[in-house]
Design brief:
Elements: H1 9-19, H2 23-44, E1 47-49, E2 56-58, H3 65-71, H4 75-80, H5 83-101, H6 103-112, H7 117-134, H8 136-142
Antiparallel strand pairs: 1-2
Length: 143
């Protein structure tokens, strides 16, 4: 028998997803675009008016010395003022460690050991519900 060719929307998503560059490359592209736009818009003198305060906000060329001096001193402060970042980094490290050590695989096998196929669906759904009660930590560790 010939294997059916995949078609449809899900196949299109898979094909497009496989053609996407590495996430690190995407971030690098976005950084280059932002730097380029800040250079161009800064040279053009583009500005906007803040809707509530009425203050005029001008585009700062991030490639210039002024832009560099704005970024460097506030670099750590920007990370400190983003509260979710610490949780995401710690959960990423913990999830990677648990995945590489085989903890997740053995925990799933142990949780489903001796269960029939129909029960496995309910066990996984229960893990998802309990994870939802735990908050955002469950989403990161369940992935």
């Amino acid at each position: 028998m010939k294997e059916k060719e995949k078609s449809g929307f899900l196949n299109w998503i898979e094909v497009v997803g496989n053609k996407m560059p590495h996430p690190m490359a995407l971030f690098l592209y976005i950084i280059i675009i932002v730097l380029g736009l800040s250079f161009i818009l800064g040279k053009l003198g583009v500005s906007a008016i803040h809707p509530t305060s009425g203050e005029t906000i001008s585009v700062i060329n991030l490639i210039s010395l002024k832009g560099f001096m704005l970024l460097v001193p506030n670099f750590v402060k920007n990370f400190q003022n983003f509260p979710v970042l610490g949780v995401v980094i710690i959960l990423g490290i913990a999830t990677g460690f648990c995945d590489r050590s085989g903890f997740f695989t053995s925990a799933i096998k142990m949780g489903l050991y001796g269960r029939k196929g129909n029960i496995a669906i309910y066990v996984i759904a229960t893990i998802g519900v309990l994870g939802n009660q735990a908050g955002d930590a469950a989403t990161a560790s369940f992935l």
